[in-house]
Design brief:
The chain has 241 residues and is of the alpha+beta class. Helices cover 38% and strands 23% of the residues. The strands form 2 sheets. The protein has a 5-stranded mixed barrel. Strands 7-6-8 form a 3-stranded antiparallel sheet. Bound molecules: zinc ion.
Amino acid sequence: MDYKTDALLLKTVNIGESDKMATLLTADRGKIGARMKGVRKAGAKLGFASQPFCFAEYVLVGRADRYTVTGAALHEGFFDLRSDLRSLYAAAAIVQVCDALALEEMPSGGLLLAAVEALGAIESDPAGTMPEVVRFLLRAAAFAGYPVSAGDCPSCGKKIEGKRFFDPASGSFYCETCAAGAPASRSTYECIRSLSGMGGGYDADGLIRALRLMKMYLTYQNESVFPALGEYLAMMEAERA
Ligand SMILES: [Zn+2]
């Protein structure tokens, strides 16, 4: 029976003469693998649906692990992401995080939405990728069940002032007295708060520190390396230097 689903293409590997095996992120069945026949041939009808970052309604036949894509209707190709190196790195980092955090048969609508929104925002403003990536990473961590908390100190309940600490085991910032985890700068804390939708602003220093903290945190929680996120971070650090 056909199975129609909105999905974001996370990655592909070449198989056979002209096929690709695609990893798709779907809302209701999480991450799935699907074979795309003949898409490496010139002029293949479904060639567009095998491109990086393709967001489409895919038509699949078969069962889990044996899906084959038989049709696709494009929602967003995010083609302009490829025309800017910064955007391309940011997008690659986002889909790699999706690939690491999503599981098969685990409803992933929240992660799919966060990724598609981030890719759209990055495509429309290549100069402002960093807040979008950090915002996405915050949403991705929450989806995966380990949200970052930048509210009052979870240990004593007081407003966090003075020195701040971040504990990757709990995903929380702590006050100077409770001091769980490692020291974190005020600018990091303010940026995480702001991009979590808790108000306030942030500066460029806080932004890069927040990106660094989120990479460290996801690596700690997920036990994955996220090389594309590392490359994106290195690029942003080089721009700042
Ligand atoms: Zn405290």
